[in-house]
Amino acid sequence: MTIVRTRYAEAHPGLGDGADPVTTEIIRQGLNAAADQMKQSLIRTAFSPIIYEALDFAVAFYDADMCMLAQAPTLPAFMGTLGFCVREAVEGVGGPAALSPGDVILYNDPYGTGSHPQDAAMVVPIFHEDTLVAYSAIKAHWLDIGGKDPYCTDTVDVHQEGTIFPGVKLYDAGRLVSDVYRMILANSRMPEMVIGDINAMVAGARTGAEALGALVRRHGLDTFRRCVARMYAHGEALVRGWFERLPDGVYQESSVIDSDGVNGTPIPFGVRVVVEGSSVTVDLTDCPDQVGGPVNCPLPSTVAAVRIAVAFLAGAGEQPNEGHFRPLELVTRLGSLFHPVRPAPCFMYGIPSDHAIELIIKALAEAVPESVPAASGGDINALVWWGNREATGEPWADGAPHPVGQGAGPSADGASALMYISESATRFTPAEVWEARNPWRIERLALAEDSGGPGRHRGGLGLDLSFRILEDQYLTAGLARTALAPWGLEGGLAGRPNRLTVEYPDGRAEDFSLKTRIFLPKGAVVHLRTGSGGGYGPPAERDPEAVRADLREGYITPEHAARHYPHAL
Amino acid sequence: MTTVIGVDVGGTFTDLVLHDAATGEIRVAKQPTTPSAPERGVLAAVDAAVPPELLARCRHFVHGTTVGLNALLERRGATVGLITTAGFRDVLEIRRGDRDDPYDLFWTPPPPLVPRRLRLEVAERVAADGSVVRDLEPEDVRRAAETFAAEGVDAVAIVLMNSYANPAHEARAAELLRQAGFAGPVSLSHEVSGEYREYERTCTTVVDAFVRHRMGPYLHNLDHELRVRGFAGELLVTRSGGGALALAEAAARPFETILSGPVAGAAATARLAASLGPSLGMGTAVAADVGGTSFDTALIEDGRLPLLYQGEVVGLPLQSPWVDVRSVGAGGGSVAYADAGGLLRVGPRSAGADPGPACYQRGGTEPTVTDAALHLGMIPRGHISGGIELSEDAAARALAPLTGPTGIDGVDAVAVGVVRIAAAHMAQAVRGVTVERGVDPRGGAVVAFGGAGPVFGCLLADELDVDTVVVPPNAGNFSAVGLVQADIVRTAARTMVRPLDDEALPLVERVTEALFERLAQPGAVREVDLDLRHRGQEHTLTIPVRLGEDDVASVSARFSEAYHRAFGHTLPDPLEIVTVRATGRVVLDADRPMVPAPPSGGSGRGTTRLWSFRRGAWTEAPVIRREDLDGVAEGPLLVVEPTATTYVDAGFAAETHESGCLLITRKDSA
Q1: Which GO BP terms sit in this record (chain A) (predicted)?
Q2: At A112, phi and psi to the nearest 5?
Q3: How many CA atoms lie within 13 A of B428 on its CB side?
């Protein structure tokens, strides 16, 4: 049994000691602004709605030592995961010595990106005069790059999940490598969309590279490096300051993942968080060996889960850099659910990773009760659709995450219908945009009455979404947390779990959670009922006026009030 | 030429600018803003600066108001009822599922403007192509009217699915609502916006219904008070998208005015760039407006205002044209502090007007950007407008505590740091707008205005690698100058997703005819724009078209050019129209000249000790009154005038351009 400890060493101790704090602040802001420019460039030019609407991408800068300089706020789920893929991408093409200005490296190996092959990264080396000083990197979700299906929930090895580019030059010194380009297109079911997104990613990474290059030129390389070292020390001090205030101790929680997607067996796991002074260790060794279905979580995404949990609790609202993560150590077991080895399938890596985030936060409830809410719907409820248009035969595809109710907190009700925290910057596609684009008619888009977990503070409501299928098509469902109801805290009751039902034209109905390629005939109606938030505190302590207001606005029915809040009636 | 008054209500001051056509005279006045009844501050400014006979000669009174914005900020507006398609009552509350702060576990959206019990559903359905899937059920509308009557609803918003493609059901629902006895204002989404995206359109329509209640009475009351004082001209209200609306239109479409606050300064810059661009060498002008609480910037290309078609105010999206002015919390009042990790930070929190910077000695003790600039001699020692005596000692006392936690050696170095960080914030905001539009600001000019803009002009030029800084006349009141230059503008739009092919342009022509008919503006100059995109993309570029002259090839070529400029590449994919936009513009006074400089003045003369950022050292420098500036003066120096101070660092030289602008040019490279 191999135990792996992942932590971040200080690359150049003492380098930042003499750095001017004013220039450090100016460079820190400059890096964050440059990352934001890269993000805006990608959003504005991307072809796939998964990028421009759902913001399913990450953009970041890394220094020559692969430490994160800055990351623009997009999907927290990708927090800090790009470091692994920058390293692997550069190694793939022969190491830093093999790089020249104008290179663009393509990399999408799940064991380096942490996710599925659809999440492809572009890495651009940034040179100052003749010195390699940094990398700009973009990872974004392509609609399709091969694999047994456009979106898979039932793979048994990683090779079924998509074509893998293990670090190859897409541009060599500014020249497009057409062999690689043609291979990408030959391996996608939607080559036109993918071409558009490739162009957008290359343009974005180059925009970022230029902005960062200008920052280095402006301040000089030596000053830049010293100030960056000081910036990391600053980020580290902020996070250490937060953990120092926590009582030292060992905090543990356990839970169960619905299914591995292939055998249907539930997967129990536990988290153990050790707070010691200003450092924190998260131990995820209490889990099964890697499983046969695609819910294994490659190490980079396990790291991301831990970082997100910490960012939510201790981040002080700052855009993070490498320094913020230095106080963190992660313990995993090689060959396990949270540290699988090739060729374990991992397409649905987000399921264990998302579950771990909420469980780590729950574990810390004992240490910081004022900072921890009850459970949310707990999943992104990913759905992917595709087919060929009836009139033209043209292929189409779309995919989206869906919002869930949020857990109630110690001082307020949970918010209704927000994206799960790992995708918290993601937006829900407007029904009118969907109808203009896809052969559907949305019949209902509503908050689910009575769905919030009862409590002194009520859980947020889940979403009820129904859409009628106007042309034959396929659906892949990637729902988790369909069996485990969102937990309440401090005596609050559970909310409702996620649920997907397909109602066929013949009146038959069937529920799905993880299922690939569900045929939807014309006339079928899909009902997605997303999870709600758990309640906080005993329902008997709910303010009667709050109960009456919920009744008046129809967030709860009289029956629900009579059952859970008789004291208010 | 006509006599025009512009009055802009800001957060702190209400500014008035009057241009007297008979004498060419300019008058300015400043009065404290009176937030509870803004018309009082407006009328006080009029009473202070405009004698009755002059008011009687005024043709136009152009007003920039925050009444609509404040109604939203304070949530004081009409009780609104919403009628929507069955199945969709929660659209307003579900929003788009995102969070303003992605890292806040407890983030909760602001409560919707219409509570759930007043969001009522009617059976009906229109498809995305405009075809009717299900007829409107009249009984549902009648029932809604009963509920609204029982609940005391003041105004109703009607938003039905896909009404942008076929508005018949919305119109019919309004008719039924009237028949059922509802007498209050009704806002229809296809009239308010005409664009797709149901959450954004619902929000815009509800905001319209919500603020109309406040805006109409306010404007009519102001109009009445002006007429009592002898005003016989026309009251106009500035739009978020530039230009102004006639009173009746502004009262009927108040959501178009909500984001108008920072627009006037950008509009004045655009006007300046359009008339002087060639002679000042600025194809690209960066508006740099530094006020008390914020830095507002806009990128002006070829004298045109940068327009966007969706704005956001207090977390509510608005489908309405608005000028792309970016605001960051880096103004004179922005507070400097040492963060938990020991770095020096500036803003976004501001000491505001009250208590204001420490050097104002009105109870503020926190160090601000103004305190740092005063300490460094970038603002003349002595008095500033408003009669507040600035205290150097108070500034130094406020800055001193920052030395400890940051480890910065001495108050001088802290002050330099605060100003550099503030300038870096401003430069990043500028880079944000220029990079997004694919424009390199080098080769253009920074137009510096607002109370503190000219203090930062040279620092910004260095940060941005720009060689030219232009300080317009009346730099401190330049935003209000933008008001007296406004045209009357009305716009309408309709989403129409279809390929850009040979059949498209005749169709566009028919749609625009209908839109212009709705605008009903005789004599207006008509402008048509299309939101275009590559098929498969979502984001659009807005491209002007000349109907009757353009064909698919010429429109496509214009799109490709704009796309290349914005994104650095072009694509072969076919184009798609998303939205058709019609603009009617009545030019009030085509020859209105650049407003000349106001009477002379300015505090301080002789020499002063100031910090040169270029030299990294203290230096003795002359202080020159703006009207005394003769020929080319080499920096470092201060140029003073009643409403602003211009800091000219070493390596820059200042001269007065024939337009009255102060032209500052870099003499070496940074």
Answers
A1: glutathione metabolic process
A2: -105, -30
A3: 24
| Chain B CB contacts of A28 below 8 Å | 343
Cβ contacts of B428 on chain A, cutoff 8 Å: 29-30, 33
CB-based contact A463 B416, cutoff 8 Å: no
Q: Report the predicted TM-score, pTM, of the whole model to 2 decimal places.
A: 0.89
Domain boundaries, chain B: 4-72+214-257, 76-207, 488-586
What CATH class is the domain B4-72+214-257? alpha beta
Which of A25, A32, A376, A451 to mutate to test binding with chain B, by most B CBs within 10 Å of its CB?
Answer: A25
CA pair distance A295, A303, nearest whole angstrom: 16
Spatial strand order of the sheet with B119-122 comes to: B119-122, B80-85, B155-159, B186-188
Q: Which residue has the tokens 């890697």?
A: A290
Same topology, domains B4-72+214-257 and B76-207? Answer is no
Residues of chain B neighbouring A553 (CB-CB closer than 8 A): 115-117
CA end-to-end span of chain A: 59
Spelled out in words, what is the top-level CATH class assigned to the domain B76-207?
Answer: alpha beta
Residue of B nearest to A405 (CA): B97
Domain B488-586, CATH: 3.30.1490
DSSP structure string for B29-59 = EEEE--TTSHHHHHHHHHHHH--HHHHHH-S
- Contact residues for B109 (Cβ-Cβ < 8 A; gap 6+): A415, A418, B93, B95, B100, B315
C-beta atoms of B91 and A25 within 8 A: no
